[in-house]
Design brief:
The protein is mainly beta. The protein has one domain. It is built from one helix and seven strands; from the N terminus they run βββββββα. Strands 2-1-5-6 form a four-stranded antiparallel beta sheet, with no helix packed on it. The radius of gyration is 13 Å and the shape is globular. The two termini are 17 Å apart.
Length: 90
């Protein structure tokens, strides 16, 4: 299953936007996913989860992120936590 995430609300056709695909890595602490999300200026408060292009769900991030200008957000998560957030496992 290929799942990716992006911050909620940004326009998909904006020049400063790019959804981050997850790159998985096995670490001593377990499997960890890494993604970089390119974002235009704005306040971002949610992550959306997709399987290919199919929307799975939305989750509020603990602290909204404000970008006064375009930038990026790196997201790292353990596989089990991610699968729970994405609604794949309970």
């Amino acid at each position: 299953m290929s799942i990716s995430w992006l911050a909620f609300g940004e326009p998909a056709n904006h020049i400063d936007y790019a959804r981050g695909d997850i790159l998985w890595e096995n670490t001593p602490d377990g499997t960890v996913g890494h993604a970089r999300i390119m974002l235009p200026a704005g306040l971002w408060s949610h992550l959306l989860f997709f399987n290919q292009e199919q929307f799975l769900r939305s989750n509020t991030i603990p602290h909204p992120v404000y970008f006064p200008r375009a930038g990026f957000m790196d997201v790292d998560v353990h596989a089990r936590d991610f699968l729970k957030l994405a609604g794949v496992i309970a």
